[in-house]
Amino acid sequence: MTAPAAPAAPAGTAAHPEPGRPRSGHRALLEHLRPQRGRLTAGVVTGLVGSVLGLAQPLAAERVVDDLGHGRPAAGPVVVLSLLVAAGAVLVGLGHYLLQCSAESLVRTARCRLTDRILRLRVCVVERAEPGDLIARVTSDTTLLRQTTPLMVAAAVTGTLVTVATVVLMGLLDAVLLGVTLTVVALVAVLVAVVAPRIGRATRGTQEAVGRMGAALERALGAFRTVKASGAERQETAALHRAAEEARRAGVRAAAWEAVSATASAVVVQVSFLVVLGVGGARVASGDIRVSTLVAFLLYLFALAPRISQMAEGVGQLQMAAAAAGRIGDVEELAAERTDRVREEDGTEEVREEDGTDRVREEDGTEEVREEDGTDRVREEDGAEEVREEDGSDGVREEDGSAAGGPLGVAFDRVCFGYRPGTPRVHHEVTFTVPARGLTAFVGPSGAGKTTVFSLLERFYEPDSGRVLLDGRDIRQWPLALLRARIGYVEQDAPVLAGTLRDNLTLGAADPSAGDLARALSLTRLDAVADRLPHGLDTDVGHRGSRLSGGERQRVALARALLRRPRLLLLDEATSQLDAANEAALRETIADLARDTTVLVVAHRLSTVTSADRIVVMEAGRVRAVGTHAELLARDALYRRLARTQSLDR
Ligand SMILES: Nc1ncnc2c1ncn2[C@@H]1O[C@H](COP(=O)(O)OP(=O)(O)OP(=O)(O)O)[C@@H](O)[C@H]1O
User: Fold this and answer.
1) What is the CATH number of the domain that holds 147?
2) What pTM was computed for the model?
3) Best of 428, 452, 455, 609 for a ligand 1 pocket test (most atoms within 8 Å of beta carbon)
4) Of ligand 1's atoms, which has the minimum distance to the CA of residue 442?
5) Would you tell me which of 38, 305, 627, 633 could form a disulfide with 269, CB atoms 3.0–4.6 Å apart?
């Protein structure tokens, strides 16, 4: 069976946002800032008090100059000035630290939200996305958000307030000199308004290029052996270098605009000093103002200059933060399976599913479920279940999950399905019924749609029309987590995750007992493998299980599925890489399991399924025939042909 291919993402999917049509970054940024408003306010207020103390310094300095000019003792004003300088510096530093702390919290929250979202994305969405780009959004974009937030907030609030207060105080000192200063501020404001959007666009370009680099790296590392064996290192390196170069160019563009903004505002501010000095000197000479007033005014201008630069820089930071927040926000807009999970300290777990089901799971294993249709259900640890329907009727559901009275097993009822709108259908009115117990095999030519049957059962995708039923109930009505908890799925390429053998076996299983673990190991003949490994079950199996053989990986995947004690076991070419002895043993195990479980297998080698209770023959997305090996040999030409090519037609 073909592993689900990852087709190239069409332009404009949210995982590859279209350049020039980014999600509103400013709104997304506001959403990130809102939960931190308390901490941000503390940081801003502390910094602000420090800045206000700074503002009082020129007044104290004016007093010192006047006292010295008139030969009066200036010790008192000097002490006050020193205290103002020290306290102002400490408070400004503290404010900066508090802002940094809130930026760290903001980023932690953003990362957690983002990773939660990514792991809940729909399978079809992840197949269209570039994993490396998604990773870059969690790492690089959130880091940018952290770096820019404190500066931006400080500039926005402290900068603005201090500037306004400084301007008022300057106006009180001399209106003419203030007029000169405001002309300068207006010049800087125009400049910033022109440059800021360009900084934002260039930053988004940089982050997108970083995302492309992540994607290229993920592609190369994901097929590392193939890249090496094909001698494709140069080719892959070239792709990475191209992405790095694009990131550099976009970064340089952003830096150039920032430099334009910073240099121009610095020059304008310096010019304003000279102009204020010239005009102020003339006004002192004509007796309009005192020398001390000019000194105080220049000190205010001195204090104002960095604020103006800070605000210009802050607007640049805002554009960068908005670019990052926009890219993070794009992921939050991708379609996800909605399952909210809250785990309390006492072990109780509350889950809200996509379909509106609420579930409370107690530590003793009891589970209460309230479905959207009003049905309440209490499930005991032993598997028994009490059901209270909305209409008040009570029912008891069997341990196997069947609805009282409903047909057990799996059924496809005229299912039509295509992976994407506008692409040819993969299933055309697929219809079959499988009883609750027994082994059912799916066979047929490559691309016939066999794996797709399993993907629909797992609800990785929804049919375009028709119904998929498990135990008499449309699977769309099953709470998603419950449905998947009932299914053990061994994929075709038996993925093994980085980590220890134990991590892999217990993936998704609550906390299996030693007995359950030993049973799963022995059923899959992994016990001998575990004994051989240097640290037994705690041996690291490497990236994607690279330290295990293909057959061992398949057995790990099978043991993982068995540990879930599934109601329905889906095996997609799950024994294809096993040696003859292991395969024969596992076939017996699977036959045993099929006595009280629904087992569906996909097999290319008919020899592995000739003894199945029933075989479903698929061709080009349709069910051609259903029967036992002998029945199908007698009445289905395609099956006969498949059997003949494998010398099984006798
Ligand atoms: N994730 C996917 N996105 C888009 N098309 C897909 C995806 N997975 C499979 N297909 C297409 O759907 C069709 C049926 O695929 P499926 O994997 O169900 O076939 P199969 O019978 O299991 O094939 P094989 O025996 O080769 O594994 C194929 O044409 C395949 O290219």
Assistant:
1) 1.20.1560.10
2) 0.71
3) 452
4) 21
5) 305
